[in-house]
Design brief:
three-stranded antiparallel sheet, Rossmann fold, 334 residues, eight-stranded mixed sheet, 11 strands, 3 domains, alpha/beta
Length: 334
């Protein structure tokens, strides 16, 4: 990892200098306003380049890069690498993060700040406003038991609290009472809710809700090993202009979690939401799934309370959690 600091009068000029010095693959790790020796204000830009690194290919184009062998850690070369490994971060990603963070720490940043900056570059965190466009439905997909319906309710209530009109749709006709939970939330919100089984019914429901600012579509949980179920959902959603969020339970083992974005790739998810953050202390699967899929991350849920247990996941909050060693449920928190 080659690290260098630059001084420039503006960010535009700074980016030009960084590009000329370090090349197209350089990344900006930090920037801050400073005063030069003559008292003028300038930008100090910290940039880095790793000539040996290359971006991982999109998950749709090849098999997931996190093989069981890649999850086995050799003897860690640093305390940070050991900590990330204890969370279940895969070996290649763990080493890449640790090298970059340690290079920043050598320039004066704290380990936590360095980790935050590196995660901010490696994981595509997005703000809530970027995850859903007004009058464009948001479809939640994911494995069984991911907590999609509860997550959907939290998102819908959050929009209502900001004064927006909402509509609710469920396609969950597989399990008994699949639509009942969402109907309870719809009645509490005094909003419309449709249960649909066919593409025609789905399009009719979307047409009926076209004046709503935000429409949320719940789907049945799918066992990714049942390809027919994936195909059925793909057929149901075919032709629907929407954003799709893949809801993944953070408490799954990291090997399974790593493979799920690829398993659901045919449904074209555009963002990741991690549920059940309160049910695990090992957060490596979040890093692995986000880095391996190249999908942006926004929300996470850390409890069953609606709507309270909804948080915006970003580099700062995730780095703080990663800096705490994983603990067992029976151990007292510090």
């Amino acid at each position: 990892m080659r690290l260098k600091r630059f001084l420039a009068p503006t960010m535009t000029e700074g980016l030009r200098i960084v590009k000329a010095e370090l090349g197209e693959n350089a990344v900006i790790l930090a920037s801050k306003k400073v005063r030069t020796h003559d008292g003028k204000q300038a930008l100090e830009i910290t940039a880095a380049i790793d000539p040996a690194s290359a971006p991982l290919p999109p998950v749709q184009d090849e098999r997931n890069p996190f093989t069981p062998e890649s999850m086995v850690h050799a003897t860690p070369s640093s305390e940070l690498e050991h900590l990330l490994g204890s969370h279940g971060v895969s070996m290649p990603v763990c080493q890449k993060i640790a090298r970059a963070a340690e290079a920043l720490a050598d320039t004066g940043f704290s380990t936590e700040d360095a980790l935050e900056m590196v995660l901010g570059k490696m994981v595509g965190f997005v703000r809530p406003a970027q995850t859903q466009t007004i009058h464009r439905p948001l479809i939640l997909i994911g494995p069984t038991g991911a907590g999609k319906t509860t997550t959907l309710a939290k998102l819908a209530i959050e929009r209502r609290r900001h004064g927006h009109s909402i509509g609710l749709i469920t396609t969950d006709t597989y399990k008994i009472g699949g639509a009942a939970q969402l109907r309870i939330y719809a009645e509490a919100l005094k909003e419309d809710m449709f249960a649909v089984k066919t593409p025609e019914e789905l399009h009719a429901a979307l047409t009926a809700l076209k004046d709503k600012e935000y429409v949320f579509v719940d789907t049945a949980g799918i066992n990714p090993f049942e390809k027919s179920r994936l195909d059925d959902l793909a057929t149901l959603l075919d032709g629907v202009e929407a954003d799709t969020a893949l809801v993944l339970p953070a408490n799954l083992n990291t090997l399974t979690l790593n493979t799920l974005p690829q398993a659901f790739a045919a449904l074209r998810p555009s963002t990741l939401i991690f549920s059940k953050l309160d049910e695990t202390a090992h957060l490596g699967g979040i890093i692995n799934a986000a880095v391996g899929s190249h999908l942006p991350v926004c929300y996470a849920t850390d409890g069953q309370r609606v709507p309270q247990d909804l948080l915006e996941l970003d580099a700062q909050s995730l780095s703080r959690r990663l800096m705490a060693p994983p603990r067992h449920p029976w151990e007292e928190s510090a």
